[in-house]
């Protein structure tokens, strides 16, 4: 309904494990304001504040981040540094999206970082992709399978890769 609501975590409990889920989007037509609905604003200080507010209520904090450079196959150095700072602030899993192509997976301290899962459901005809190689890369994606168990690090078990037509 508004920015305050957008910043509220989704908390799920399964098998005695409490998972706190927070999601953020870069500023634009999709971000919430005081009077309009939308996603929480992607701002590092806001994200850290939200992590601190739920850290003692959950076993794992998972972030969904709309970030990165579209069609870039690698996260920027700034993204990597920010991901590390967010793990240092208490996030255990970071799931990135926006580049529309696959990017790397990294274990950093207690955290597991998926910089971009690629495309899952997205119009491949959207935007102007002029390089054939990148057109093909936009058809790829993964679904990550992560094991979360109290007192242990998040474990990346496997992924389901797919190629869309």
Please characterize this protein's 3D structure.
The chain has 165 residues and is α/β, with parallel strands linked by helices. The protein has four helices and nine strands. The chain has one domain. Strands 1, 2, 3, 4, 5, 6 and 7 form a seven-stranded mixed beta sheet that branches. The model has no long low-confidence stretch (mean pLDDT 85).
Q: What's the helix and strand layout?
A:
Elements: H1 3-6, E1 10-14, E2 17-25, E3 40-41, H2 44-54, E4 60-66, H3 77-88, E5 93-97, E6 105-108, E7 111-114, H4 132-137, E8 140-147, E9 155-163
Parallel strand pairs: 2-3, 2-4, 4-5, 5-7
Antiparallel strand pairs: 1-2, 6-7, 8-9
- Domains counted in the coordinates: how many? 1
The overall average pLDDT, rounded, is 85
Q: Specify the structural class.
A: alpha/beta
Number of strands: 9
Shape: globular
pLDDT < 50 runs, ≥5 residues: none
Proportion of residues in extended strands: 25-35%
User: Over all CA atoms, what is the radius of gyration?
Assistant: 16 Å
Q: How many DSSP H or I helices? A: 4
What is the H/E string? HEEEHEHEEEHEE
Report on the biggest sheet: 7 strands, mixed
Q: In percent, how helical is the residue content?
A: 10-25%
The separation of the N and C termini measures: 36 Å
